[in-house]
Amino acid sequence: MFIKNGWYAAAWADEIGHHLVQKWITGEPVVLYRTQAGEVVALHDRCPHRRASLSKGNLVGDDVQCAYHGITFDCQGNCVRVPGQEKVPSALSLRRYKVVEKWQWIWIWMGQPDEADESLLPAFEYNDSPGWKALGGCIPVKANYQLLTDNLLDLTHETYVHGKTIGNSAVAETPMEYQLNGHEVHVKRIMENTPPPPLFKRVRGFEGNIDRWQIIRFQAPAHISIDARGYPTGVDDLEQGMRWFSLNSLTPVDERNTLYFWTVTRCFDLENEELDEIIKDQILKTFMEDVEVIEAQQVLIETDDRAIPEVSIRADGGSISARRIVEKLAAQDADAGIT
Ligand code: FES
Ligand SMILES: [Fe+2]
Predict the structure, then answer these.
(1) Could you tell me if 106 and 132 lie in one domain?
(2) Residue from 45, 49, 58, 80 to probe ligand 1 pocket by mutation (most atoms less than 8 Å from CB)
(3) φ, ψ of residue 159 in degrees (nearest 5)
(4) Pocket of ligand 1 (CB under 6 A)
(5) Which of 4, 190, 198, 283 could potentially form a cystine with 333 if both were Cys, beta carbons 3.0 to 4.6 Å apart?
């Protein structure tokens, strides 16, 4: 069950041009393209004639022509041409989804278009803000998206999974505080006077201990921002510290596949291109360590015939709260018949 009345990251903005791109989101096929004027369009990617994939068809001007029998739809999803007949049956139309292009990504609202509310977009403005530099990508993951939200809401795993980059023993040893705030979950972990993890040393040249902050914000359906900071312990000069946001949107393709959109956006040493490469490479390696664990976890969950209930621990507080929010909102959408 998915939240339908909610925003999901559908694509990086530069991925969508005047050509047809297919994405599966919450179990639905969507075809995306830009009109000649540059507006992004998202339509249901299943031809109402015989269910062929429209994204395998052609753009004729700003209209989509099905590759199978040539029925053509405009960018509102209305049928404008049926080969061999003059009358266009009114049932021949496509669902059009509400989309917003913002902060380098294309966001899609999978529910009722008239309820699409831009104020519910996640707070990802640092992906495109003066004084910040965002680097990132999108990783296809063979696992349910909530295994990834669980992962990002409990960074204890950094100690065990990411020892080469952002993890060390201080993370697991420092307890987190978490708080439910409407449809958001906030998790905070502050590590004082602690050795910097390997990537922080590499990026900022820390020699002594640092005070390290992780401030995590979950916004439904599956957006997680991590405000990560490190400052030399006892030094007041913020210029000597580092701060970046790790901004993550987990877009469910279906129940067992996810598009993991990510960026790391920093506010220091912006012109340093060598640093860009280090961050991009090291963060991607870090996330691929997560993906390896999580894809294996998905297989074991699916093959567990006895379905023994999982046993939760204190560190699961944030992820359990986030799952409850998603469950409630998804049930509301299902009860209201929003598909
Ligand atoms: S299936 Fe699309 S025109 Fe026939
Ligand atoms: Fe991780």
Answers:
(1) no
(2) 49
(3) -60, -40
(4) 47, 49-50, 52, 66, 68-69, 71
(5) 4
Q: Relative to the CA of 50, which ligand 1 atom is closest?
A: 1
202-219 pLDDT, tens per residue?
999 999 999 999 999 999
pLDDT on residue 237: 78
Instruction: Say whether both 155 and 14 belong to one domain.
Output: no
Residues 153/187, Cβ–Cβ less than 8 Å: yes
* pLDDT for position 127: 97
- Both 276 and 158 in one domain: the answer is yes
CA of 91 to the centre of ligand 2 (A): 47
In a domain, 237, yes or no: yes
Tell me the average pLDDT across 127-156.
Answer: 97
DSSP string across 200-249: HHHHH---S-EEEEEEEEEETTTEEEEEEEEEETT---GGGSEEEEEEEE
97: confidence class by pLDDT, cuts 50, 70, 90: very high
**Tell me, what DSSP letter sits at residue 309?**
P
Domain annotation covers residue 181: yes
* 273 Cα–ligand 1 center, Å: 49
In a domain, 339, yes or no: no
Ligand 1 atom at minimal distance to the Cα of residue 57:
2
Q: What is the pLDDT of residue 169?
A: 93
pLDDT in tens, 289-322: 999 999 999 999 999 988 889 999 999 999 999 9
φ and ψ of 97, to 5 deg: -100, 150
Kindly give the number of the ligand 1 atom that is closest to the alpha carbon of 71: 3
